[in-house]
Amino acid sequence: MATVAGSDTVHGWAVRRPGPVDSGPLVAVRRPVPAPGPGDLLLRVEACGVCRTDLHLAEGDLPPHRPSTVPGHEIVGRVIAAGGAVTGFRVGDRAGGAWLRGTCGVCRHCRAGHENLCPESRYTGWDADGGFAEAALVPAAYAYPLPDDQDATLLAPLLCAGIIGYRALRRSALPTGGRLGIYGFGASAHLAAQVALAEGATVHVLTRSPQARALALELGASSAGGADDRPPEPLDSAILFAPVGELVPVALEALDRAGTLAVAGIHLTDIPPLNYQRHLFLERELCSVTANTRQDGREFLAAAARIGIRVTVSRYPLSRAPQALADLAADRVSGAAVLTPD
């Protein structure tokens, strides 16, 4: 059996009893080094991003799929063992494990190229242990090859924040040279904004965090205001990254005729009643974003490399994972929070 740092066990964090962050939902665990199945990679974790989905799981907004699951689905690691059926990866390679970790491959959604909608889809850090640990298993068919010459902490947020932000951008139907509004400006938003800007969009950011507004302007946004503010011009498209349902009517009202609002989160607080004339008339559209496909991941990682995407991170040692979640909950994180080995 492969070992991690000469040990037969690995340290990590698991969600024992979901609840508010200050109630201590994460508990330290030590478990045997997982053994890879025929199609699995065993990764020694170099970095793992802390996603808002991890926070939703810890606090109980997402019902747990299994007890005491290790969260974390933005995993950058080195292959230290591989199953006998694995092709495309060797021991020593750097690989990334992301949110989507399995689909049936045969349902009508999978056959149509919409594997993110597969009823049998499975997710890292929800259906199986993730990367808040020293080692993690990742199915090779859902892993991404990653460059050796880049900082692992800067690669980790690309694997969910980046990919989901990219899908949300595409779902928002932003026209060439269009006007994009971004509501909330955390890990995912600050990456999606850069893709939009590289493609010639005008970007307006609306968020409650002064620190996030400053980052948005630094990255090239044309304006940055409060979450409830009206952007300086009508929007062709908007993306809601903040998990705040009260912002849905706010964003819809900011859309121009035929504009589209994409809601990017896996969890959203209740949406207030909508007024048809104010919010939806003139062919405005409201759509959701559900997970991602592997093609989304490949396209985004290629785009990130092509445009030289800038990743802003706040680093935490693995031993401080609870603090990283608490800071994320309190909007104290600039860009993306990333865990690294102690």
From TrEMBL:
Needed co-factor(s): Zn(2+)
Task: Write out the catalysed reaction.
Answer: a secondary alcohol + NAD(+) = a ketone + NADH + H(+); a primary alcohol + NAD(+) = an aldehyde + NADH + H(+)
**Domain of life according to the entry:** Bacteria
Sequence intervals crossing the membrane: none
**Residue stretches making up the Enoyl reductase (ER) domain:** 19-339
InterPro entries for the chain? ADH-like_N, ADH_Zn_CS, ADH_Zn_typ-2, ER, GroES-like_sf, NAD(P)-bd_dom_sf
Keywords from UniProt, A to Z, are:
Metal-binding, Oxidoreductase, Zinc
Provide the E.C. number(s) assigned to this enzyme.
1.1.1.1
> What Pfam families does UniProt report for this protein, alphabetically?
ADH_N
Name assigned to this protein: alcohol dehydrogenase
At the highest ranks, the source species' classification is: Bacteria, Bacillati, Actinomycetota, Actinomycetes, Kitasatosporales
Q: Which family does it belong to?
A: Belongs to the zinc-containing alcohol dehydrogenase family.
Report if keyword Endoplasmic reticulum is assigned: no
- According to its UniProt record, this protein's enzyme class is oxidoreductase
Name of the gene this protein is made from: adh
